[in-house]
Amino acid sequence: MNLSQLFQRSVQMYPDCTAVACGEQVRRTYRQLHQRVGALAHWFRQDLGLQPGDRLLIVLKNCPEYIEILLAAWRAELCVVPVNSKLHPNEIAEMAEDAGARKCLSHGSLAAALRDHPAIRAQLDVIDTGEGDYLKALASPQLPVGGSCDENALAWLFFTSGTTGRSKGVMITHANMVNVALNFLSDMQPVSQGDAIVHVAPLSHGSGIYSIPYWIKGGTQVLPESGGFDEVELFSLLDTHQRASLFAAPTMVQRMVRHASENNVRPSGLRALLVGGAPFYIEDIKAAVQCFGPKIAQVYGQGESPMTISRISAEQLGAAVNAGDSELLGSVGFAMTSVQISIADGDGRPVTAGELGEVIVRGPVVMAGYWNNPQATASTIVDGALRTGDIGLIDERGLLHLRDRSKDVIISGGTNIYPREVEEVLLKHPGVAEVSVVGAPDPEWGESVVAFIVRRPNAAVEDADLDAHCLSAIARFKRPKRYIYVSDLPKNGIGKVLKRELQKRIGKSA
Ligand code: AMP
Fold this sequence. Notes:
This protein is α/β, with parallel strands linked by helices. The protein has a 9-stranded mixed β-sheet. Strand 24 (432-442) and strand 25 (446-455) form a beta hairpin. It binds adenosine monophosphate (AMP).
């Protein structure tokens, strides 16, 4: 089964249901979406000259066209390369070159900036979805349904966020994506006709992946007119669309909680917040559940096993907040249905139950490998299992606890310190709004712990307060040797803190 065949099935099952909505204006049924998809697929193949297996770059903010472009590319047997639209053209040029893409769909000022970039211009034909060609393409004949059914064909080339170095292209097949969608439906939430998913996080990442189970089940994709995350717009959409869920990074959830509390509003249509992509701290989980009720689920995944390794359902998380079950709240939950998780030592051997090691993942959701990079593939997929690079343990209840990415662990005086543990403690201080802990080179200890702190408005928190607070909760050697106060933390387009950026700043702020 491939994604195009599955969409065909949805068109047959839900022809008159709303497939796509944008604000109050655009609403397309599955039947209408199907027409547009067939025409675009024909245009890709006949007019743009793309062949099965070719990579199609997509550099767009979230918009209704995004959904039809993904589906049309699959109908035309292409592999999509959705790229974060907030990246610099230099970074996009690198990805386009690596992917060997020749065509790119973009829009407005984004398209203009790409066309202005010499390296992109030399390699890519950038097509603006707001211009005549795209609009004319929608009147093309239909590409016949029923191309190759090869489920091992590439569906999505997903460039990793590159927080620790040059981005790599993760090869996701149709079979991977179908399995990701099935795990979503069995473990995150069931979806029925009329249920909505609001895409405020980039469709180039998690939100795009979550679009698939929604169209498989006749749900509605809701695209905000702003093309991204805006609290006022989102809350209004969550009043218009009932039974609406969204994928959000933890930082977006914090902003939603703040908006709800400051304006004393709660959206009537919110069904669930599906949160992941970065550590979701216990204090933030509690605040979200207190604000919105038991509607917060957590997911742990990575590009190499997209959005699908472990999860805590909204019911479980709500019950854990009520019961004060900090073990569950501090974990990333249980393995998803078709995922097998184990923990291994540095040599890949299983550790004793409860011990820390690298999180290893097996299952049909694991990527086919890295594009054009057999060396990285060989060191990441060993004996068919994915080495995630995350450090964690499985406790006696079967809950997976993540510490950090192995590259983020701080080794001070020969002892491992996991930044996340220190961050969780600092976030409990009432004067701390955000925190990120990193290691800095230290002549005596090898590395020392440095905490970047964003204070809450009007909080006069100082080093001595934070020191006393840390000493009341964690071992002395884990306490930061230095606190650096900043107005905000550098984050990438999907809300992950850029720890390398912080490390570069340490020398400068000494
Ligand atoms: P990416 O491949 O860019 O999506 O990054 C994936 C990485 O983000 C994972 O390997 C984890 O280190 C981290 N991550 C994702 N989800 C979670 C989560 N729920 N809690 C903690 N870390 C997470």
